Amino acid sequence: MTAVLVAGAWGALGGVALVVGAAIAWFVRVPAAVIAGVMAFGAGVLISALAFDLVQEAADVGGVGATVLGFLAGAVAYMLANALLARHGATHRKRSQNQQPGPDAGGSGAAIAVGALLDGVPESVVLGASLLGGGRVSTTVVAAVVISNLPEGLSSAAGMKRAGRGARYVFGVWVAIAAASAVAAALGYLLLDSASPQVVAVITAVAAGAILTMLAETMIPEAFERTRAFTGLIAAVGFVIAFVISRSGG
User: Which of 47, 75, 106, 143 has its CA 20 to 30 A from that of 215?
Assistant: First the structure.
């Protein structure tokens, strides 16, 4: 039970970063270019964690074939779910400017909330599963989740505020997502505790595929809209810093 709680705590840490980002956006006027720059940096860090921690480990344990299939399955599942949510108003849920729909736009509020949950669950499952077998959570993965979630909450909350969403809705969404992240991490540990290493590897690959697709469809477009020519460089800096952390034993 202690290990389950530890897994939940790591998931909660990632979720709290969303709440902190939302609070900053609500009370401080952060320039859009700054938000986009931090988001580009976070995307680079997360891509590095995917490449050198999650996918590499999944391939080492589960084999290249199973990892590729799991990765692509995760990517397709996220793409389809995101496309469905987009039809209900959640397309621009991470946008900080005037792209998000207001509270009078039908079911868009629920779609945005579900979309935020969809973005966070794969990361949380990975954090929980990483503790299986007495292992320790990867410093690189934790850093990647926190660094990417902070600008995600910041950007999305800024967009919600501009669209006329109230504080109760905005903070209600992010607190709920933080709690769901903790639950997802705990369940990721609990449900996979008796699974074989190969099954865990495939699940990790599925989550990794979903995370990369999320980055390409939501975070990177928002970052590029404001940082333009600097987006790639900022993301590259985030990537190489996470790589150094990973190589140093993180």
Answer: 106
